[in-house]
Inverse folding.
């Protein structure tokens, strides 16, 4: 199916999820009405464009064992309801002042709304590499791309007040960026740069302002972030 026809179908459906995808497509392509197709104007985001082909399918997470070996797929909400171990990732972006770019989660998120957390986080899709997933989601949520690398992974389990539970094998990744993000309001309420020491102190004073996973991850690699410097 040509992407032009896909875009037309999205416009006719008009549901919230499809409108969101329509906006994503509009950011990445323009319609050439004479040729009845879509031309991608920036090859650096081709991977994001391809990720929008499946519109209505419910998002699924990759179930894994403690060795990070895939054992199946499950709808994301169901995995959080049943506290099933699944693969995830968390991206931290620093600037040349060694400040972390934090995001405030959007108000309509089904868990942890309006809490502050790391630059972005989500779940890998089937067949997707950790770096590919982190790069994709960084663009989807924060509107930019940068080189990222994986630091480590760990398993954590954390219940939420709404009855859901995060039980994830989380791949932690790090990148650098000195510009201003173009946040996606469907995902992100706000953002800010914050010094590492200030985050540590504020978590003690206001722990309720931060997501559960951010507090766990931050504690684990605090000293690494302290000593890490921007590589030219």
């Amino acid at each position: 199916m040509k992407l032009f026809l896909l875009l037309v179908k999205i416009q006719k459906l008009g549901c919230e999820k499809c409108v969101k995808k329509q906006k994503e497509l509009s950011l990445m392509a323009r319609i050439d009405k004479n040729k009845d197709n879509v031309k991608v104007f920036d090859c650096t985001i081709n991977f994001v464009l391809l990720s929008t082909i499946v519109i209505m399918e419910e998002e699924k997470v990759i179930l894994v064992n403690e060795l990070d070996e895939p054992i199946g797929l499950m709808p994301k909400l169901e995995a959080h309801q049943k506290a099933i171990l699944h693969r995830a990732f968390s991206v931290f972006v620093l600037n040349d002042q060694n400040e972390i770019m934090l995001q405030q989660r959007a108000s309509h998120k089904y868990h942890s709304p309006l809490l502050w957390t790391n630059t972005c986080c989500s779940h890998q899709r089937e067949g997707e590499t950790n770096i590919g997933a982190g790069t994709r989601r960084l663009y989807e949520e924060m509107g930019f791309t940068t080189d990222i690398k994986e630091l480590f992974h760990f398993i954590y389990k954390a219940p939420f007040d709404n009855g859901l539970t995060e039980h994830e094998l989380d791949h932690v990744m790090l990148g650098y960026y000195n510009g201003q993000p173009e946040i996606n309001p469907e995902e992100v309420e706000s953002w800010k740069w914050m010094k590492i020491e200030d985050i540590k102190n504020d978590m003690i004073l206001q722990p309720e302002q931060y997501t559960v996973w951010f507090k766990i991850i931050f504690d684990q690699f605090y000293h690494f972030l302290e000593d890490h410097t921007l590589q030219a």
